[in-house]
Amino acid sequence: MPRFLKSLFFALIIFMLFLGSVQAEDGTEPQLVYLPLIYNEKYTNPWLGPDGGFVVNMITSPTNSKIIYVGTWGNGVFKSVDGGMTWVKTSNGLGDLYINSLAIDPQNANILYAGTYNDEIYKTTNAGETWSHSSQGVQDGAIIYTIAIDPYNPDIIYIGTRGKFAVDPPPWKGIVYRSKNEGINWSPVLENVGGSNQQDWAYDIVVNPKNHCMVFVAMHEYGVYRSLNCGDSWESMNGNGLTDLSGRALVINPTATNSDAVYYATWHRTGVYKSTNNGDSWTNQFLYSKIYNMDLDPQQPAILYAADFYDGILKTTNGGGSWANIGLGENLLYTVMVNPLLHTQVFVGTAGNGIFRSDQSGAGWIHSQNGLNNSMITGIQFHPGESTQIFTSTSRGGFHVSPDSGENWQQLNNGLTDLDASGFVLHPQNPNQVYLLTYSGGLFTCELPDCKWSQKNIGLPVMDLLSTSGSGFFPQNELEAELVANSEDLMIEDTKSVSNQPLNDLEFALNNPAIVYLATSANGVYRSNNGTESWSNAGLSGKNILKLALHPANSDVVYASVFNSDLVYTTSNAGASWSSNQVPGGIVNDLAVNKDQPGELLAATNSGVYKRTDGGAWQLLGLNGQMITALGIHPNQPNLIVVGCPGAVYYSKDGGLNWFAGPGDLIETKIKTVSFDPNKMDIAYLGTNTQGIYRLLLK
């Protein structure tokens, strides 16, 4: 580098550092300084995993059995070129990373289409290297549920869309569109199903490979529609044996068979309907299942697989005459796919626990998700005696441990009957003792390294799932919220009549770890005086307690925030009575105490970070106007504060006087939790809702 450029460079750095020294005075907003972070070359990839997440759909190359694509909820499209052994993100150009549908051109494996949850449809012509918007004529903000390509003429494509969120009342603006020029332009061909006051939407579309102008559509609540002229006109195929109109999935026999079998799977627990005459009449193959997706073995079309959202994979080997459950019932399932060129290989995408693969037609299942970075993180901690050992909990993936700073991960779920973990805590005096909070299984504990989980629920509240108020299902995203909003029957698992209430937070008293406080989702705060062996209510009954914080030196002093509330509650008598105090920043999303300043409480709000000292008035600490979703104070450096926002992170090294913006890597995700290695002062670990753990270097 020429000498004058070096001088200019260093002068610029000194000038920027000088700007970073500006402090807030007289209660004014602390200055934000946007400095480039200087990263330690030891860490080349800030994303640590663990692998897994929410896999909504899958598709394979028509010419290469090793090439597979999956669409994830929140981290775009991933591609494998080795039969699902490893995955690489291939989402450049996607304006929306919430992928709701995928399709590949049957005659050109480089052309794919990705339907998003709120940004219409995208197209790639280079096998996923880059994507571009391809939605001319589609309603703005459309959710794309299904994409079907004409196998005879791939210029013709059909998509099933909805123009508004399902949690809103109808009409839902459901429209089936058709393109005749590979997605350049789209025109509506089926709309106002159910009438103009309903406008139902299509969950699935299939084109008959034997007669490409025959197209079938499975509607959300209006059954099956069929077109005999490539979508120009449609007729309802309900009746004649088809009585459940809650359509979710369609499959049809391939060209090489003599059968005209069409299979239609339902959501309202009636199973699968079969037609052998292209939909003119139907017979029911009853299954008490909520089928989310279905696929057919193209080389042995009497073999079908159905993904029951709750109860695992169902398989038939005789065209639906009988079905058997072949596993994965401990997971919630989105999709199942047979590899058409390697038909004994079956893939399953789960709602939180990544991808499973069977190479023996479902006879056994293994995780197949190396590199699939889509986990929803609910907790992060380090072993205080082994700083390379990281623990994390994930939504629907249970508990994970990495022995090597996030390079490799192992799930430790032996005995864990609920994989939907909402967080975890290490015992403050025995860090090998882990306590895991779940959404329906209550509180679990295990001893490392073997980690055989057992429950600690004596005295904790339960829910009656058979009552009108019970659900037993807790949506983690918009896609799942619509399942509850539009389901006519309770979203409960077949084998459950009661469930533990979701647990949101757990805190040990540092001065006496036998005292533990627990935040529940509907019954307030619970307290244990014997180290979690039994529990009793400690006040705020009927409230959904989001976060807890304890006074470091007085276990009777507890702070609690309530879901969707701007109040912080305080007790000074172990929960016998509580008082509330309003935080000016609005809804409180997180709480933290400064262990070096026991009377200091920080609150992350929808409009900045606030601080209260010794029960006094709340004061703005910084980031006015920013929604703060997570907050962390370094345990051994209390002036180091890191906060997470939707798509951003900020940190302060001087107790909130000055704030610095982190890198732009987080723009497409939301931070749910902040944690630290207590032995390192220059690193924070951020748990995201769609991309796993992010290692933030604070150089």
Query: Which term fits the overall shape?
Result: elongated
Number of strands: 61
- Flag low-confidence runs: 1-42
Strands ordered across the widest β-sheet: 1-58-57-56-55
Oligomer: single chain
| CA distance, first residue to last residue | 24 Å
Gyration radius, rounded: 27 Å
Number of helices: 2
Main sheet summary: 5 strands, mixed
Assess the beta-strand content as a share of residues.
35-45%
User: Structural class, please?
Assistant: mainly beta
What integer is the average pLDDT?
91
How helix-rich are the residues, as a percent range?
under 10%
Describe this entry's structure for a reader.
A hairpin with a 4-residue loop joins strand 29 and strand 30. The N terminus is likely disordered. The protein contains two helices and 61 strands. The strands form 16 sheets. The chain has a five-stranded mixed sheet, with no helix packed on it. Strands 2-61-60-59 form a four-stranded antiparallel sheet, with no helix packed on it. Strands 4-5-6-7 form a four-stranded antiparallel sheet, with no helix packed on it.
